[in-house]
Design brief:
By secondary structure, this protein is an all-alpha fold. The chain has six helices and no strands. The protein has one domain.
């Protein structure tokens, strides 16, 4: 009987030790590191060999890294709404990368912009104020890119 209690106590202490080493890290800290690595990888792909595939992969890596840095904000043990939204936006970006394979970057950006707008509208009532502000900032960045794309299209159409 005493041996079983010692074994159970040892297992509990081992679990506490492993939790402290491996699982007591901030999710926000880890997501920021991964986001920075993705952004740096994207920049290297953009400048290393600027063919359309490398540009698209680089832009995708930069977008996913930016989403991770902006949206994952708190330390959690369970999957919170910010992590779920980040996973969903990342999946949307990867799906749009696959769907717009041979098409130009303009359609890729516009489809991502529309997806992020839809995601924000569908999850708006579940978001905290801090997360709403960060998602609005991300949407604003995509809106500026959208305006640039539309401006270039109008200028090329008018022949100015």
């Amino acid at each position: 009987m005493k041996v079983n209690q010692i074994e159970i106590g040892g297992i509990k202490e081992l679990k506490r030790y492993l939790d402290q080493i491996y699982f007591d890290k901030s999710t926000s800290y880890q997501s920021k590191i991964i986001g920075i690595i993705l952004i740096l990888t994207g920049i290297v792909l953009l400048y290393n060999n600027p063919i359309i595939l490398n540009i698209k992969i680089g832009v995708t890596a930069i977008l996913i890294g930016t989403v991770m840095i902006f949206l994952i904000t708190e330390k959690n043990t369970s999957m919170s709404i910010d992590i779920k939204i980040t996973i969903f936006i990342t999946a949307w970006i990867l799906i749009m990368f696959y769907i717009t394979g041979s098409l130009n970057l303009e359609i890729f950006f516009i489809m991502i912009f529309l997806g992020v707008l839809i995601i924000k509208e569908l999850t708006d009532e579940f978001l905290t104020i801090h997360l709403k502000k960060r998602l609005t900032l991300l949407i604003s960045m995509f809106f500026i890119i959208f305006l640039i794309i539309i401006g270039e299209r109008i200028i090329s159409f008018l022949g100015i």
